[in-house]
Amino acid sequence: MNVLITNIGRRGYLVDFIKAEESFCGQVFVADCDETASGLYSNHDGRFLLPRPVEEEARYVAELLSLCRQQAVDIVIPVIDPEIYLLSKHKELFAKERILVVVSDFGVLETCCSKLKMNDFLRKNGFDVVPTFTGIRQLEAAHAGGTIDFPVFIKPVNGSGSSNCGAVHSLEELNASFREQMLIQPLLTGDEYGVDVFNDSSGMPVRLVIKKKLAMRSGETDKAVTVFHEQIHSLALRLAKALKHFGPLDLDIIVEQGRLYVIDMNPRLGGGYPATHLAGVDFLQLLMQMHGGTDPAPEFNNYKAGLLTMKDIGIKTCITRS
Amino acid sequence: MNVLITNIGRRGYLVDFIKAEESFCGQVFVADCDETASGLYSNHDGRFLLPRPVEEEARYVAELLSLCRQQAVDIVIPVIDPEIYLLSKHKELFAKERILVVVSDFGVLETCCSKLKMNDFLRKNGFDVVPTFTGIRQLEAAHAGGTIDFPVFIKPVNGSGSSNCGAVHSLEELNASFREQMLIQPLLTGDEYGVDVFNDSSGMPVRLVIKKKLAMRSGETDKAVTVFHEQIHSLALRLAKALKHFGPLDLDIIVEQGRLYVIDMNPRLGGGYPATHLAGVDFLQLLMQMHGGTDPAPEFNNYKAGLLTMKDIGIKTCITRS
Q1: Looking at beta carbons, which residues of chain A come within 8 Å of B311?
Q2: Digit-coded pLDDT (tens) for B237-246
Q3: Percent of chain B with pLDDT over 70
Q4: Choices 3.30.470.20, 3.30.70.1730, 3.40.50.300, 3.40.30.10: CATH for A108-127+189-310
Q5: Interchain CB contact of A309 with B (< 8 Å)
Q6: Can you name the CATH fold of B189-310?
Q7: Is A243 left (phi over 0), alpha (psi -120 to 50) or beta?
Q8: Where does the ATP-grasp domain lie (chains A, B) (predicted)?
């Protein structure tokens, strides 16, 4: 069983996770479009430069498929948003050659990418939705009506990580910061949780790990502690059954005055996956099992609670010239 | 020779650097005020929680001194700005017990902390200085006179990292973002370099490594490549002789239209130190040598050029409850 992690970026730890699994006896390859991606210098069995996926879609898919054939790759794990979109459209091409591309159907990705579509999905399925305004006038009317007050929070309609997100403290500041394709929401200040939910090939949840976030950094979870939380558990199960994603889903949930608000859904291995993995729930192994044709049986609350996971500075080097 | 790194934060790599040195035969201890600091879970010989340095100065110094006695610490290496200020005022107390606290004199720190004092120092010593405005009216006058145009860059007078820094594209945005104790400068877009200059105990430079920055993240150098650069080399030497800091100094320099502008001076081990160390210049060993009473002889251009250093995601865990 050979695995290829594409656009690995800084996540060299995924290579270590796969190799640490005793039963694993294949090779782990890594690829990126940037030769200075630190993951290319991790403990892999081969690194490859591929074209930039979005700018050169056809060439990217052709070169990726060719690489998979050449290295007898069984599973491709993309970990960044732009690439999962693209590969979702082409996964059948890989499936024909028994190569599993770990990505959900395109409809699932569309629901997750746009915060407006995500809100529609949540509303339709009976979940609480954060009040959302798509323009300054709409916000002003609500503000005049007393239904929202500053500070508010602005974010892009389609966004990943925390880029261009931020608290805004006045109408003046809002006018200066607000751009097209942004949303305005109340600033939520409750505890934030990350949930990793793994669905089997029929779109049914089989694993679930809840982590309370203690600190963020560059839009990624920096420190988190695994917890059990009944309300979040049942919400996440219900959501995963409705969404019917494939494999990993990384949910962000804020608990505000007793209500649970889903604020982000990423149908891929998220930046907070290390905590899930190290708490004893190995999504990577499940994917290999599924490639072998067996869907895992559901098993919940099977993780170590109270595990604090902290991201650290690792360092990789390479010689660029002599 | 025992070493203590205080408020280690995410820099567990410093422990590895010291221990990787063949001639090192002591212990490396780590301390932080936050029990979730990942560096506390590095490959150390003992971790200690200390009070928050700034909020509880007297208690901090007393507990640190007591810890040093108890663990027979020879060298204390503080790595964050608030702490170097504080320890600079108390270093003699430690020196009396033959404990070397790696920090410059208070006057040096004052010059480095305030961008206005730094500019005075640079001007007085004949270096180029980035045009700097301390208020919106002053900026408006210069803008009307045609000496500066948007976008401009705002930053705190006293600041570390990139917090509250940013490009500002209009007077409207400036009015919304500008606060007391901020500076306005032209937005420089030239290549940025990090320079580590090590001074001996008489304040004379003995080592110097230049790195071209390729990428930043959360205000720290994320990717850099070591280079030789004659102009920067002679500027940094001249600056270090004028500043007379002790031990490490981390300089940030932008080359804009052929002129060199010093934009930041940090008289401590900076976030970009790993590149210097891995290129073959070991500041940590020099400090141990100096504690032993021998100042190192000057040696320049003794590093590996073309070494690309990338920061990666490392992961540490601990159990917080059973």
Answers
A1: 10, 38, 313-315
A2: 999 999 999 9
A3: 98
A4: 3.30.470.20
A5: yes
A6: D-amino Acid Aminotransferase; Chain A, domain 1 (3.30.470)
A7: alpha
A8: 119-292
